[in-house]
Amino acid sequence: MIMWNKYSKLSEIINDNLRASIVMEKYGLNFFSNGNKSIIEACNAKGLNPDKMMNELLAIEEEKSGFIKFDLWDIDFLTEYIINN
After folding, report:
1. What would the pLDDT profile of 33-65 be if each residue is shown by its tens digit?
2. DSSP letters along 1-67, please?
């Protein structure tokens, strides 16, 4: 199991589990341009609660099954994902 904390970089989390992008997109965190920021830095910049985000990210990591549901992503986020990948 991957162990993330509030000081983990957004890019590290995405590299470990692409499904974490669902949580980041939900909170409006752009891991492409802000990948070098830690969770706490990114959350503080947007006035978000880093503990709440960590709980959601860890829940994603603990899930044993399921697939990325691209059809649930915002069209702008999906477009950026496609362009960058």
Report:
1. 888 999 999 999 999 999 898 888 888 876 644
2. -----TTSBHHHHHHH-TTHHHHHHHTT--TTTSTTSBHHHHHHHHT--HHHHHHHHHHHHH--S--
